[in-house]
Amino acid sequence: MNEPLAQRVRPKTLEAYISQHHLVGEGGSLTHQIKKGIIPSLILWGPPGTGKTTLALIIANESKRPFYSLSAINSGVKDIREVIEKAKERGNLFSTKNPILFIDEIHRFSKSQQDSLLGAVEKGWITLIGATTENPSFEVIPALLSRCQVYILNSFGKEDLDTLLKRAIKEDSVLQTKQISLKETEALLRLSAGDARKLLNIFELVVNSETSDKITITNELVMAKVQKNTVLYDKTGEQHYDIISAFIKSIRGSDPQGAVYWLARMIEGGEDVKFIARRLLISASEDIGLANPTALVIANNTFQAVTTIGYPEARILLSECTIYLATSPKSNASYMAIKQAQEAVREHGDLSVPLALRNAPTKLMKDLGYGTDYKYAHDFQHNFAEEEFLPATIAGTTFYYPGENAREKAIKEFLKNRWKDKYNF
Hints:
Elements: H1 5-8, H2 21-24, H3 31-36, E1 42-45, H4 52-62, E2 67-71, H5 77-94, E3 100-104, H6 111-123, E4 127-132, H7 136-139, H8 142-145, E5 149-152, H9 158-171, E6 179-182, H10 186-192, H11 196-208, E7 214-217, H12 219-227, H13 240-252, H14 256-268, H15 273-288, H16 294-309, H17 314-326, H18 333-348, H19 363-367, H20 406-418
Parallel strand pairs: 1-4, 1-5, 2-3, 3-4, 6-7
Helix pairs in contact: 5-6, 9-11, 10-11, 11-12, 13-14, 13-15, 14-17, 15-16, 15-17, 16-17
C-alpha cells in the first residue's frame, strides 16, 4: 500500500482527534463552535505535524459543509477564483451552508493571491481555513487577518505521541498483520520533536525496514534505521525547527562556528531568507538586548536588505549578521523584564493608574485630581525627580535587573545614582 501511515490513521471525528485540548477538548475554544456548526473563517497556526489539516477536515465533516482544498505551494489566483465560483454556484443551487476552503501553507501566498480571497470571505461565499507554520502577523495581509480568528496549535506532548503510536498499531490494517512490541519509545519521541506526522513516518520506516513480521521497537533499532535514512534538511518541516533551534542556541552560546554551520545547513536546504532574518531579529532582542543595542539595528537592517536582494547574495549578509550576534555580549534582562511584568499584570489584573500620572485634558478631570502632584522631570536637576510610577499594589517592584556586561553595568550605576534607595542590585 503506497498511502503513508500518517494518512491511513488520520482521525475523521472530533472524538478521535488527539492533542490540542485547549481548542477541541472539553471546554475548548473551538469545541462548541464545531458542534453547533457555527464556524468563522480562521487561521490555524502551529508547527508541522500538529493536526492543522486534520482539524480542518474534521470541522468540515462535523459541520456538514462542502470542503475544497488548495495548497499555496502550487495554486494561484486562477485556482482560487475557480473554487470561489464553485462555492457560489453550489450555494445558489442547494442553499447549503457556505463551503469551507482550506488553504495549506497560506503564508506562501503573495499579497495579490491573498487579496483575491477577501471578497468571498467578506460576503460569506466561503469559510476560509488557512494553515500556516509561520506567524500570521508577518505572513497574512492585515485585511485578511482581520476577517479571521487565529488559533494556535501546539507540538504534541509525550502522552499524545504515545497514544498515537498505540492507536496506529491497534487500528491500522497494515500494521495489524505484524506483531509489534513497543519496548522502548524514547528515540521515536525524541526524533519526532512533537511532530505527529514525523513520528508516524519514522515508525513506519523502522517497521518496513524489518524483514520479520515480529518486531520489537527499541531505541537502538530506531537510531540504526533512521540514521541511514535522514535527509540533510527539509524546509517543509522534518528538520526545520531542529536546525533553527541549533542556530539560535549557537548564537546565544557565543559560538560563531556553530552558528555559521547551521546557517549554511538552512541556506543549502533552500530555507526562506525572511524566516532566517526574522530569527536573527528575535535573537538580537532576546539574547543580546541592552548588552549591545546596535545588534538590533544590524539585525533589522539585515532583514530589510536580504528581503530586497534575495539569494544567493543574501547569504553573505546573513553570515555577517550571524557572526556579529554570536560575538556580541549577551543579556536577556529586557526579555525577563517584560516576562515578569506580564506575569504581574495577569496576577493583579487592571490596576488603576496613579492620579499623578493620569492625563487631564478637561477641567473636570483636573478637578478630580488627574495629574495633580506630577513632577515634570525636566524642571528638576539632572532632569530627574523621584516619583512612584507603579500602581500602589505593586509599588517598589523591580522587573528589570541589568545584566553583568559593560553596557548594563553603566545602566545599573545610572539607576543607583538616580534612585538612591530604590535599587539594591
